[in-house]
Predict the structure.
Amino acid sequence: MNLRFVALILILIAGLLLEGCHEKRVSATIDPQTAATAENANSPETAGSPEMAASESSTPGTAGSPETSSSPEASISAETAGSPAAAGESTPASGATSKPAFDIHKCYDTEAKWSDPQQSIPLNYQQAQGKRVFYNTCVWCHADVTPAGPSNRSNVSPMPPLINDGATLNQISDEYLQNIITLGGSAMGKSPMMPPWGQTLSQSDIQALIAYIRAVAEPVYEAPAHPSSQYMVK
Amino acid sequence: MSPEEMGTVSRKARMTLAIASVAFVAVLAVSPFKDYFRSWKGYEKDYVKLAATRPDTKRLMADYHPGIDQIWLPEMKVVDRCTTCHQGIAEPTLMDPSVPQPFRAHPVIPHDTKEWGCTVCHRGQGPATEVAEAHEATVAWEEPLLPAGYLQASCGSCHRGDIPETPRLNRGRQLLGQLNCAGCHKLQGIERAEMLGPDLTRIGSKVSRSWIYKWLKEPHAVVDSSGNTVVDGYQTESEQRMPQFRLNDQEITALSAYLASLKKQAIEPYKYEPKVLATWEKRPDVAEQGEVRFRQMFCTTCHSLQVTRGEETKLIGGDIGPELTKVGSKVNGDWLISWLRNPQGYLAHATMPRYQWSDEDLYKVVQYITTKLIDPDLLTGVPELGEPGPEELALGQRLFTDKGCASCHLVQGVNPQRDFGPDLSALGDKNLSQLEFGSSKIPRNILAYIQAKIGDPLSVNPAARMPQYHLKPADLDAITTALLSMKGNTSRSGMERLTGAKPDRQFNPAGAFGELYERYRCDACHAFNGHGGTLAPDLSFEGSRANRQWIIDFLKNPQTLRPTLLFRMPQFNIPDQDAVVLADYLVTACQSRDVKPPGPGQAAVGPELAAAGKELYEVKYTCQACHTIGSSGGYVGPNLSNAGNWLNAAWIKQWLRNPQSLVPDAIEPHRSFTDQEIDALTAYLVTLKQSGMAPAKAGGGVAAAGGAQ
């Protein structure tokens, strides 16, 4: 009879201690993929602090490795004909197998790389708004193909740079870009054919545009370590 | 138990009690211990450590509040504790990608993350304080985080009207409308249109039974191995509206028999003027002449044709009307003539304008369509379909409603089944237990469910009545986003009133103008006071913009102002008196409040002012970057060679002051000209006049389209 008491108490303790794991196991019975992620959350092997690694792999906003990804469409593509092949459309990962491939469903919007339309560039919300502003306003002179067909770029002299021309635009600071877009070319001592957009576009539109320019730059733009000065580096 | 033993405690019992006490203390100790090791406390410690390594430690620590942090919005049903761990969410200095999660700042968005919380957009379990519970599906909470690619669905749950910030959601809503999903399903914010598929009441007088058979068998859209939508063997950008139904041969035969029997009124053969027939019947180049006329009339503004250039084959032209590459093998010749002469006579709400045909033009164009736009192999593979028996007709009629044809196609006297498909207006808010996965192998979540249902309906339900659509992956994602945004009327906050879709405005002009407006279907392309199409310029303020005589000339011979445009105003052959009625109405009724006509005491402009304006145009503001005058200049803005005849001076002045006040989405930048500069530029522009107008170039626009994206 007393043994029964002891056993009951031991079971109680065991139950309380296991409570945390219990819920995860319940979720495992629903979706094996979730379980994979939950297990990963408990294993401290991944780089960095274990907690951080756990949240990295369980947050769809950041890319998880293909096996542990809880993204539903990664698995649907394998089973349903005609559904998006999430893994197939992603850019090739840079060598290492542990490095996850970029998933087209894990970003707000995408832009096809101009030099290689098969590849997509992920855009966050702000960059996506910049893309919209670009295709409304700037594309006519800063691209070789426009939604209406031929481009006006060759009619403008000096010829304006393409928006993805990293070699030229990466040299220019955010502040300088903001000024030349807002005030126009003539105010900055450049070609007067670049009109001022400060009264047409809002400042947040212009900042989004700069974020987009940085996102599509080829070669890739790297932000300066220190806040840049307002003036262009000569 | 003996009386001596009563009140005494045995050794054994003491032991048990001791063990039990120790165990009890241990159990009690577990709670504070577990509480101490809560994962969010670990994150808080890590955040403090991270803050110490940042240059702005002091400011970060000033914003740091230990303990559970909660955002509560009762009206939005939001209880979010996400910021307990995501401490740096609103710290602009932590936006750098090198900052580890969960501390990185949220990317720039128009809503304040600290005010709105996270789950209203990202979904997931807001009150949870464990990583897995917050982000994933659990027994108690079936809504995991929404992958970022579908986040626009959350925008659409509040913003019922289209906003430019959500391209994927807008595309999805547009597709749900275009693909006629509202025919069978109840959708939120997408009303069933009056006419979805074509009216079939008189289809038997338009096409043959063999053609119907072929069409039902292969509704001319197939997806090739690389996932591209191919129409009749060539690739196209546009989605096909008629999906593929799973019909067997017997069903197709019966349906084609029933449909071919629908000939309410026979089509009377049209009698051409004998003189026209005598002249044109023997001309060998009549079809070529018809093609020239077809292009001159800009039929391709609404209809597309298959064009092969080199290796590439694609559709070129508009999508307001159907594509016409093989229409000559499809329709009955007498029907074609009667349709071209009076589309509304066959179909009361047809979008096609009623052209003013001369017999000569009609003959030429019909010859072109029936001899050039054909495919002799179109009906190969169609078996010999004899006279249908009464059982076949009855079966066809039953199938017409049973298979859902009647949900999109009107046949007078046939009532569609009510609620043919499930109600999807609150699909985005459904729990997993409300979705019927059946025995399918798809993952148990709503994203996978929607995509499988649309991508391959049979994969979820082998008895599905839903037809097969062939969607590109991007379009499938767009539709999924739009469906996820439909959460029914869950919000009690009255948000819908602020962010709801704008109701469709009506514009029903009366009188002589109203009659012509109906006849030429102006609203198919032009908008008037918020009602109408978006293909062509909004004409709400046309009377302030253009001179009356210019409008009359334009209507009679539409010239494009923008040479790069692919879609141009069709040539309607408008008679003089009609053009005058249209121009008078536009000049009188379509006026902007912002454009003030010049007062009586206005000084006449001298040539010096115009010269100063020319200087400003060419040197200071380099307008030639975008506008063409004569033969040189840019393509972005309209050609200004004839601005003096075209534009009102008062319009030019207001336009230069603020273009967006007249056309809200104008590309022209809003500059800060001085009043003197505006006067000078206006003086220059009104001197630009062209006497003779160049004839419209045929086919130029089509050639330009090759470079379009």
Observations:
- Residues 20-100, 228-234 of chain A have pLDDT under 50 and may be disordered.
